[in-house]
Amino acid sequence: MKRLDAIIIGAGQAGLAMSHLLSSAGLDHVVLERFRIAERWRSERWDSLKLLTPNWFARLPGYRYAGDMPHGYMSMAEMTDYLTGYARVSSAPVIEFAPVTSLRQIDGGFESETHAGRIESRTVILATGACDQPVIPDCGKRITPSVAQIHSRDYRSPNALAPGGVLVVGASASGLQIARELARAGRRVTVAVGRHNSVPRRYRGLDIIDLMDRAGVFDDKIRDAHDPERSRHQPSLQLVGDTEPLDLASLRGLGVRVLGRLADADGAKLRFADDLAERTRLAQVKRARLLDRLDPVADALGLAADPAARLSSVLSAHDTALDLHAERIGTVIWATGFRRSYPWLHLPVLSPDGDIVTLGGNTAVRGFYTLGMPFQRCRKSTFIDGVGGDAHALLPRILEHLGSGRMAA
Length: 409
Known about the structure:
Layout: E1 3-9, H1 13-24, E2 29-32, H2 39-43, E3 59-60, E4 63-64, H3 76-89, E5 94-95, E6 100-106, E7 109-114, E8 117-126, E9 133-134, E10 148-151, E11 165-169, H4 173-184, E12 189-192, E13 202-203, E14 206-207, H5 208-214, H6 228-232, H7 248-253, E15 257-259, E16 262-266, E17 269-272, H8 276-300, E18 321-323, E19 329-334, E20 338-339, E21 345-346, E22 368-370, H9 384-402
Parallel strand pairs: 1-2, 1-8, 2-5, 6-21, 8-22, 10-19, 11-12, 11-19, 12-15
Antiparallel strand pairs: 3-4, 6-7, 7-8, 9-20, 13-14, 16-17, 17-18
Helix pairs in contact: 1-9
């Protein structure tokens, strides 16, 4: 059996970016995808979702957004087309419907068992990203079965839900976007708020992503983080793929009830922490800190001050209890993030809690690398715009491991 130079696991933006660079370096490789190219963009997002970042920010090695709406926000169908187009122009050697069922070390490399057969390689790049298994807190098990529960990954539209009100647990981008859509569809919505990052969609006349990019925020290195582990688990920015503001105050304006963190459940009786004011105050502090960093860039561009955008509300909630039956709530949506699971990975690279221990893409096993993990090398490591830089940083290490003097084109 021929042994390949590399196997890439995952055909999303990270895997395709790495494949482009490996092809440029003349390395023999395949990209193994469990279903189809860009599968998570195809089937694990809700119908109306758009990218949180503007289209011009969709930058991959050798590939850029080329449409006529650089300041718009791609839909999921457009994002799928974007990545399948990248695979096509890169001639990426993707094998679809080939999930890896086992990966282990063998003499001089690795052996991957897949639905496409057994494949040997000298290196492996894991590019499956951070979103895998939905996280639902333990208290979900104690909620009455008469109320439907779904994770945000499985939410599609208001019409697909059971009748009645909806409790959305989580106040990052997904939770707030879903809550807003439900409220506009006429549902009675309650949001349980935990840690969150509130930012304006636009600041001083520019998209916040534009200013953050110009200020180098996305290039912050993990090695400079005060608490690297906490940095890797930061909630997503409260943004939506349009020009309207999205925050807890705007949701209240739509009639959404905002409560503190969900603390526990007993049947239909739910208990919430009395911490909404503190949560929103901390978010306000973080918002001000970010805008302080952006102001010098905006000043240099001659942009007008924007005092209104610097304001965010410190909210309070008097209710710390909720009866799902009395409130006629028919669905709980858990916008509580994801965790990774690697039952097929037979390498000594996992921490006691099951996460891969990686530093800049390197692991304890030589020849086994990661790409697209949260804050892998810098703040934008999971962004479409970030995987290319991380892939470029990995390529020399892969070439060195293979004993090749060839450099990327």
